[in-house]
Recover the amino acids of this structure.
């Protein structure tokens, strides 16, 4: 199984400041079709996860442009350019190149 | 709008069975693959199973932890996907989410989930 390792475990951020989350996979997520099967999700308190970023860097519909994704192969990063109060929650990375789908352990983001 | 509404959760004894349902609306259900993902309250996400469409013979995939005990089914005439859970264990206690596979790998819409508690 592909292991997804997220860091840090938690972040406390002042509103308006940037934040960054890292995710590393144990195997390359680059498919033979040239796509990289890597995703970021945000789970707000009491809500199901919502898709933020797909294929490393593409923002899902309605996702603010302060969220950006980067990386390749096995190393990926989610950046929030200016954290807002509504960004609190747990962020998860996920791979979907092979079954079983696997998720990172999550990064809890809170506001200072 | 895409909506996924799960039902069927509850309290069940170890060794028992339960069938979860997920009613989909707002999209052409038969065209999409579907997943089940579970989450122990306060913990992380664990993928459970996947079902493809009719064109792919409704092929299924399962996590090792549930293979042989859980079955994912779908009824395209009812826009619904199901999770049949047998031989339940205490470690199956979790919130079970129904999730749509976008077709490009992303799991793009999630239901609120239905809580399954396995306890004597």
């Amino acid at each position: 199984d592909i292991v997804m390792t997220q860091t840090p475990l938690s972040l406390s951020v002042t509103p308006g400041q940037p934040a960054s989350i890292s995710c590393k996979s144990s195997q390359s997520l680059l498919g033979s079709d040239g796509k990289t099967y890597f995703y970021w999700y945000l789970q707000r308190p009491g809500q199901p996860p919502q898709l933020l970023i797909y294929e490393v860097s593409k923002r899902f519909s309605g996702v603010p442009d302060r969220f950006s994704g980067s990386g390749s192969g096995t190393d990926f990063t989610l950046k929030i350019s200016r954290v807002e109060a509504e960004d609190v929650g747990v962020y998860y990375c996920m791979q979907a190149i092979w079954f079983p789908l696997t998720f990172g352990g999550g990064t809890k983001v809170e506001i200072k | 709008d895409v909506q996924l509404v799960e039902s069927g959760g509850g309290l069940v004894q170890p060794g028992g069975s339960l069938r979860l349902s997920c009613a989909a609306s707002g999209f052409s259900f038969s065209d999409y693959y579907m997943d089940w993902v579970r989450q122990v309250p306060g913990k992380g996400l664990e993928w459970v199973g996947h079902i493809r469409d009719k064109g792919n013979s409704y092929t299924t995939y399962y996590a090792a932890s549930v293979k042989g005990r859980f079955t994912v089914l779908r009824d395209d005439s009812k826009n619904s996907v199901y999770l049949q859970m047998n031989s339940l264990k205490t470690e199956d206690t979790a919130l079970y989410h129904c999730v749509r596979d976008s077709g490009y790998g992303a799991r793009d819409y999630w239901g609120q989930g239905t809580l399954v508690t396995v306890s004597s």
